[in-house]
Design a protein that fits this description.
globular, 2 strands
Length: 355
């Protein structure tokens, strides 16, 4: 628990103090956000707000994780490094997207094929490496079995797992990217989702099969180190949210949204809670489905289901104030997370009923 607290606190401080410095630097460089012409007109006032703030979140996460290990005088684990590597890789793809937008002064950065290609390279590399480095019990950072709150009996095989990991990582990073359309919406939701993974991974550590915890024990390889990763990222998002809350003084950009989406997917894979992410990340799923539904129906009927997609823009155009949309969507995210944690704990109780 000490390491978790150190990781979260250090990352919070780095992010809280480092973000204003990033704002000044980005303003001096002229790295401001470009706004879509077809979006809500109220967003036009945000033109020029510094973007690429996700770099601060990444740096704070790495700093919190690294200093926690130095304080404990312990080395990192394969699982922790792989998840952080996934975050860095997708953050790099997002950085290229943001930089192209700024350099070419357009709201479109990387072409869709190039972006998907970058995500594929990073996701497939993670999937391959996650099946390496067995520990003393023969466990690798990831499992080839499909998981919900733990591994199920359905096995993908190595190739099938790599494909599944890529699809998960791509879906989570794109879902986070779609959610990042209002001040503080994605960063605030990320805080809650990451907090849930701190709870899950620390619970798995306390009830690990390696310590002979009895019925319902967990076979995740490095749960305590994954708790450190989640805590560091949570602290980093908390500190960033201080400056990203409405009215935002900085945006995370694709640098942050792709990185955070990948991080969450990596935590789900390494904690053996892949399908549970659909519940915990319910808001990201809602945002993604709204876009899929809007595009699909429009192609068939030439009519729109929503005023605009993703769905948070629908409510803005329906007359809701931006802060109202943000807070209500945070409530939806919180309810989804509470339900997901309830499912996780209820499954554990099914093996260890209360007397």
């Amino acid at each position: 628990m000490k390491g978790v607290l150190i990781a979260a606190t250090v990352a919070l401080i780095i992010s809280l103090l480092g973000t204003p410095a990033a704002i000044r630097l980005l303003r001096r460089k002229g790295y401001g956000q470009l706004i879509r012409d077809d979006g809500p007109t109220t967003h036009h006032t945000k033109m020029g707000t510094p973007t690429m703030g996700g770099a601060v979140i990444i740096a704070a996460t790495l700093g919190g994780y690294g200093i926690a290990h130095l304080a404990l005088w312990q080395g990192p684990t394969a699982s922790g490094l792989l998840v952080l590597g996934l975050m860095l890789g997708l953050g790099g793809v997002g950085f290229l997207d943001d930089f192209i937008k700024i350099y070419k002064q357009r709201s479109l950065g990387l072409r869709s094929r190039a972006k998907l290609g970058g995500q594929a390279v990073v996701g497939i590399t993670f999937g391959v490496l996650a099946l390496q480095w067995k520990d003393g019990r023969g466990l690798t950072p990831a499992s080839t079995h499909l998981s919900f709150v733990r591994d199920t009996g359905l096995a993908f095989g190595a190739i099938g797992f790599v494909i599944w990991a890529y699809l998960m990582i791509s879906a989570a990073s794109n879902g986070m990217n779609l959610t990042d359309g209002l001040d503080g919406l994605a960063s605030g939701t990320s805080v809650m989702v990451l907090a849930s993974y701190v709870i899950i991974s620390f619970w798995e550590f306390g009830n690990a099969c390696a310590t002979g915890s009895g019925p319902g024990c967990y076979d995740a390889r490095d749960p305590l180190d994954l708790a450190l990763v989640g805590a560091a990222a949570m602290g980093a998002c908390f500190g960033f949210l201080w400056w990203n809350a409405s009215p935002a003084r900085i945006f995370m950009g694709d640098t942050g949204s792709l990185a955070l989406g990948g991080l969450v997917a990596g935590l789900a894979i390494t904690t053996r809670t892949e399908l549970l992410l659909v519940v915990l990340g319910g808001l990201f799923v809602l945002e993604t489905l709204s876009v899929i539904l809007q595009v699909g129906v429009f192609k068939v009927t030439r009519k729109r289901v929503f005023n605009m997609a993703p769905i948070h823009h629908h409510f803005e155009l329906a007359g809701w104030a931006e802060n109202t949309v943000i807070v209500r969507f945070w409530i939806i995210a919180g309810l989804a997370i509470a339900f997901g944690l309830g499912v996780f704990y209820a499954e554990f109780l099914s093996h260890n009923p209360l007397s």
